Amino acid sequence: MITSSARTTVFDIDGTLCFDGRTIDRRILDALADCERAGHQLVFASARPVRDLLPVLGGAFPTATLIGGNGSLVSVDGRVRARAAFQAGELDRLLTEVERFRAGYLADGPWDYAYTGPADHPIRGRVDQGGLARRVELAELPSVVKFLVVEATDLAALAQAGRALGMTVNHHLDEAIIDFAPGTTNKWEALTSLGIDAYNAFGNDINDLDLLRNARHSVRVGTHPGLDGVARVTVAAEPEAVAAEISRLAGAPGR
Fold it and tell me: Residues with Cβ < 8 Å from 38, sequence gap 6 or more?
């Protein structure tokens, strides 16, 4: 558990800080550094596993807390742990649906991963960019903390099947992928498990809904319609606008 503070600020990564899948613009990095110097405790919360957060951050903000896999993984003081994983029976039921819809997938363990999707799928460019893990067979993973479907005969029907199984499901229509997490796992739920209940937040997608809704001060990056009316501030999905809003937060008294 870490100390909760209203000057804790939580940032999603892809589409919020990172716009090319690989790097964070220098203007945003500088604004984040300003935020840290102003006394904000930084938290990065992503759908990516912790393994794939590290190369994007590039060694910056080593004391930041990391939340990966939409809440199924956390890293505090550099120690990564799985805090939620699919139970064996739960995963078997999901795999039955995966087979029914002839789906290709990326399954993440606490560190290594299994992949059965197309070799040229865009998601491959965001997986293990730092060469830190191994690609293994699904059965070799000690546990599965996140399951991402990248192709299927009917993505909408597969997403609904996952919801019927009681899983947390985020169907990203713009990318044609489905993100499955065990139980009610999400970024906000992971934050509360770490003792963080007062915070600011930046996010851009439907998997940031609870994160933004429960924040003291919330910023939507871009115009995702699923976040209409949720965030207090909306900024353009471009580095200059995001950096400016982070700098404003850093200079705001009491935030």
Answer: 7, 250, 251
* CA atoms of 143 and 134, how far apart (whole Å): 14
Burial of 96 (C-beta count, 10 Å sphere; 0-12/13-18/19+): exposed
User: pLDDT for 48-107, tens place per residue?
Assistant: 999 999 999 999 999 999 999 889 999 998 899 888 899 989 999 999 999 999 999 999
CA quadruple 96, 99, 101, 107: dihedral positive or negative?
Answer: positive
Q: What is the distance between the alpha carbons of residues 255 and 251, in angstroms, rounded to a whole number? A: 8
Residue 15 Ramachandran class (φ > 0 left, ψ -120 to 50 alpha, else beta): left
pLDDT tens per residue across span 3-34 = 445 589 999 999 999 999 899 999 999 999 99
Helix residue ranges per DSSP H, 82-186: 88-100, 155-164
Tell me the whole-structure pTM to 2 decimals: 0.83
Q: Strand order of the sheet with strand 177-181?
A: 113-115, 104-108, 146-151, 177-181, 168-172
Separation of alpha carbons 17 and 21, rounded Å: 10
Answer for the pair 167, 161: CB distance below 8 angstroms, yes or no. Answer: no
Tell me if 157 sits within 8 A of 101, measured CB to CB.
yes
Treating both helix axes as pointing N-terminal to C-terminal, what angle do 239-251 and 26-37 enclose, rounded to 10 degrees? Answer: 10
| C-alpha distances in Å from residue 240, one per residue of 45, 66, 166, 234 | 21, 24, 40, 14
